[in-house]
Amino acid sequence: MNEGTAPKGLVDRLLALNAWVVYIFFYAPIVLLIFFSFNANENVAIWTEPSFRWYGEMFQNHNVTSALRVSLIVAFFSTIVSTVLGTMLAIALERFRFRGRGALDGLAYLPIIIPDVTMAVMLLIFFFQAFGIVDDLFGISLSNGLPTITLAHIAFSISFVAVVVRARLTQLDGSLEEAAADLYAGRWQTFRRVTLPLIAPGVAGGALLALTLSLDDVVVTQFVSGSGATTLPVYVFGLVRRGVTPLINAVSTVMLVASMVLVGISLGFQRGAEARGQKLADAEALRLEMATD
Amino acid sequence: MTTAPVTPELERAAIRAESRRGFLVSLPAAVYLVVFFVIPLILVLVYSFATRSSTGLTVLEGWNLESYQRLFTDDAVVQIFIRSFSLALVTTVICLLFAYPFAFYIATRTPRVRNVLLIFVMIPFWSNFLVRTYAWRVILGSDGPISQLSQSMGGEPIRLLFTNTAVLIGLVYGFMPFMVLPLYAALERMDWSLVEAARDLYADGWTAFRKVTLPLSMPGVVAGSILVFIPALGAYVTPALLGGAKTVLMGDYIVSQFLAARNWPFGSALSFAVMFVMLLATVFYFRAGAKTL
Questions:
Q1: Which residues in chain B are contacts of A97 at CB distance < 8 A?
Q2: Average pLDDT rounded to a whole number, residues B196-218
Q3: What value of ipTM does the predicted structure carry?
Q4: Which CATH number applies to B69-292: 3.90.190.20, 1.20.1290.10, 1.10.3720.10, 3.30.300.30?
């Protein structure tokens, strides 16, 4: 395959050199950041001695822990809702023909294309207007906080989940689903026993993407968070703008390690789920076939 | 089970039922996107024609085109737009120059090596963007490693932070994985036997690359370029953390219109202008993709 036409000699060595340069570029800043987070010195970039001082301070810092709590709550709800809605959207667009499908297809891509900043502006104005109307009609004054952050995160995550699940759905040619239908499996039965196990890796991938997007977002959250509730990235962003401190290094390292653990889980899960999902669906198709024979 | 003869009425009824089911499955996501995406988008458009009162409040009457006029007549705005556009373009070119040989190197390894190399691209891709940008703030700072190295060699302290160069480094670092992955996907998918055929017909390595590999990988080049250019043009976190007052880009300029200057109509018009450029880029992308695929 590819190896047969691989470049040889000097060209290959230059390519390898370029690859090393890119990898060093990718990892040097990350390694440096983790290294300095274990530095006892107040000054970020001057190494004195190793210590866990900043990690201790981080967990005693009330602002950090409460921001972390908000981040986790928002990410939890946003991931669940956007995964369910995104998966349903993907199935509707890939497996059904219905009126308004074309328009919905276009609309589903827009939140991905639109820049973060525009999305943030849109939701800021939207919540401002909506709260104004609620105040006029019912005399209840609402303000931005944890619920608005969650609603905003769902709004930009649905499309990403839908794209990932759709990619998985197009890979399946639908023959197993047709086979199940031919064998008198009902629509719901076919979905639960054949389609769902097969698209499980896609759904899991979509959910992890939604989780990452929610945990990483700064711009949109900054616009829709109130004085009461801020997420960890927004809190860190505010700190960083004022200057670099060893405490931020420690918080950053924790955030970095968390996202690396998520990648690890995602890679492991995707491999396992792919094999398991295929086996499950095959077995289910076979069982249906035998039951009707 | 008995089978009834399929009449045109039955068939139409079946199509209607199918259409209704598809509509119902898509409904929750569709409603969510209309409420939290389409309506907010329309609101931004409405705001961009509104008037700003002397106290900074938006008055939803006296509709006018002033905000849009200012986009073209205000020198500061034009400068910011040109700066954002050229920085995004330079970022895309630099990413392409390093990512192409990098993706080529990965694609020409054995499958096992390829997977390991890819995982090490995925890790920074999924890692927290804010944290990865923050790391450069430490590195480029006046007491950071680069400056220290220069001083230890008897040079002047180098202060790269808050310059265009710093923003450029941050953008390339942040968006490079977006370039690598589509390039790799295109190169991996490619039919490499065509390259072999070219070599069999006495094309030298360079000619085979220029006449076969490069044209066949063009979809990846286009996809990667768009995926880097679009977020780079609307970037907010990178210029906010690594740039200074003289390196304001579109993204942080828009944010400042909402959070500092309190000129919502002008900010809305700016958001729309940026979105328009991005939609153009996306249309171009699909056109180019359709032609080459």
A1: 15, 18-19, 22
A2: 85
A3: 0.85
A4: 1.10.3720.10
